[in-house]
Amino acid sequence: EVQLVESGGALVQPGGSLRLSCAASEFTFSNYWMSWIRQAPGKGLEWVANLDQDGSEKYYVDSVKGRFTISRDNAKNSLYLQMNSLRGEDTAVYYCAREEMIAATIGYWGQGTLVTVSS
Amino acid sequence: QSVLTQPPSVSAAPGQKVTISCSGSNSNIGNNYVSWYQQLPGTAPKLLIYQNNKRPSGIPDRFSGSKSGTSATLGITGLQTGDEADYYCGTWAGKVFGGGTKLTVL
């Protein structure tokens, strides 16, 4: 069974930085586009960023451009999200997710990691 | 404010049928496949329907999806208390989701 396990969430002050990690297993990680999707407390889902199989193509939602960087290490089967200049509105559970390009959907989600931005 | 519009809540009795609507535009639903995700309380979302009406392995046929023009619908028959959850529609090509619908099984 596909496994995606996020880590790195924490309480951080506004303006601070945080790096999220996602460990993937039970599938060939290097074959898939991967995404980060977030959910603010009591709110809906918002796609944050994604990247292609070798990390050469990266896309971001406008609200995080210039502040967040998505990356991957295929040798370590890991996905990352470097978050800088954090704001209160970035408070959310962040999910790592595997894209299914042919099916045009998100096939698998991790359990999420909570990022709280507050002073 | 989500790009796709869903009703905030729906409810029905056990054993009954419920439908959840998802409304968009030509830039999202109208020209892309629709997916549906189920989020049980305190858990991560799970894929229920993809490509408008296909079910992944393991999803019972009580769950169905359809699409017409710029709207999509999720149907659930034979409601069970375990179906109580938030349901989200989404179009992956547009990277957009609905605001979610809370299903209550009375």
Order of helices and strands of chain B: EEEEEEEEE
Distance between the termini of chain A: 39 Å
Looking at the structure, what is the overall shape of chain A? globular
Beta-strand content estimate of chain B: 35-45%
How many individual β-strands of chain B? 9
Q: Give helix % range of chain A.
A: under 10%
Number of strands of chain A: 11
Count, helices of chain B: 0
Level of helix content of chain B? under 10%
Q: Structural class, from secondary structure content of chain B?
A: mainly beta
Question: Can you walk through the features of this model?
Answer:
- By secondary structure, chain A is an all-beta fold.
- Chain A contains no helices and eleven strands.
- Chain B is 0% helix and 42% strand.
- Chain B contains no helices and nine strands.
- Chain B has strands at residues 9-12, 18-23, 35-39, 46-49, 63-68, 71-76, 85-91, 96-97, 101-105.
- In chain B, a hairpin with a 6-residue loop joins strand 3 (35-39) and strand 4 (46-49).
- At the A-B interface, strand 5, strand 9 and strand 10 of A face strand 8 of B.
